[in-house]
Amino acid sequence: MNRLEVDFLNFNLKNPVAAASGTFGFGKEYAKYYDINQLGAVSLKGLTLNKKEGNDGVRIWETAGGMLNSIGLENPGVEAFVETYDEIKSRIQTVKIINLGGDSLDEYIEGARLLNEIDIDILELNISCPNVKSGGMLFGVCEKSAYEVTRAVKDITRFPLMVKLSPNVTDIAAMAASCQEAGADALSLINTVQGMAIDIQNRRPVFDNIYAGLSGAAIKPIALRMVHQAAKAVDIPIMGIGGIYSAKDVIEFLMAGARCVQIGTAGFIRPTKLTEILAELDEYCIENNLSLKEIINIL
Ligand SMILES: Cc1cc2nc3c(=O)[nH]c(=O)nc-3n(C[C@H](O)[C@H](O)[C@H](O)COP(=O)(O)O)c2cc1C
Fold this sequence. Notes:
Elements: E1 6-8, E2 11-13, E3 17-19, E4 41-43, E5 60-63, E6 66-69, H1 78-83, H2 85-91, E7 95-100, H3 105-115, E8 122-126, H4 137-140, H5 143-156, E9 161-164, H6 172-182, E10 186-189, E11 193-196, E12 198-199, E13 204-205, E14 211-215, H7 220-233, E15 238-241, H8 247-256, E16 260-263, H9 266-269, H10 273-288
Parallel strand pairs: 3-4, 3-16, 4-7, 7-8, 8-9, 9-10, 10-15, 15-16
Antiparallel strand pairs: 1-2, 5-6, 6-14, 11-14, 12-13
Helix pairs in contact: 3-5, 5-6, 6-7, 7-8, 8-10
The structure holds flavin mononucleotide.
């Protein structure tokens, strides 16, 4: 019996732990450290219709309890991704989540249309990237535009649609409800929290874009609160994200209403962290004589 397995959309995940988009590339680098197919799922680096070189200047900045990033969605573009997908598929046999961002409604629609040509498992719509001018974030902070982009992509995609929410909003429950109403099959949250750092020597912002996205342990309580609020507002399943560093953190997210989680920054601290968390989760289940399914939404 697998005590870690959870159901998410039509998938029976072998465990609730997935790698978070943008922190795992396309799996190649981590495959050197552990068998990435041990993970319940992986969310691959965010794609946009057209190739992006990413932002100039500083891209990563360590903070107390986390990090700021301003990558700017560097990626090869959907078409190039589609062309190399066979190779990615042969490397990654676990559930594959493809993360799609965009600067306009048309870009999202065209990106989703091209992805229909390959066999992905879940389409994750990034309407929440804070590091590109517009970059999807505009869609993710306004209920009406979140509804519009969700609806438009839902109409065209042949895959289950998971919408990734931004924490940079005043009412996460309303955003969640709006995406559900527009046809989202699942939600993932949260993306990074907008932050800033200043280079006091040079008296200027560290990042060329001034603001950047905060991730890691520092954002966990915010993410947990938002997952709890979203879970109360919708019936569709939720993938919890934000500052998860341990099995205890995963369990908190499941208890708050997530069915599974993505982990990003913790894997930067130690590449094998995600598999260590899996082992800890197993121990927790054995010690408490339960399976993880039993604790989902238990609050
Ligand atoms: C370096 C970096 C790149 C990221 N790139 C993406 C991305 O391409 N698409 C996306 O939806 N989220 C992206 N994110 C956000 C993460 O997927 C995740 O939502 C966030 O980091 C919070 O989780 P964590 O605290 O476990 O890292 C990125 C985060 C980091 C740190």
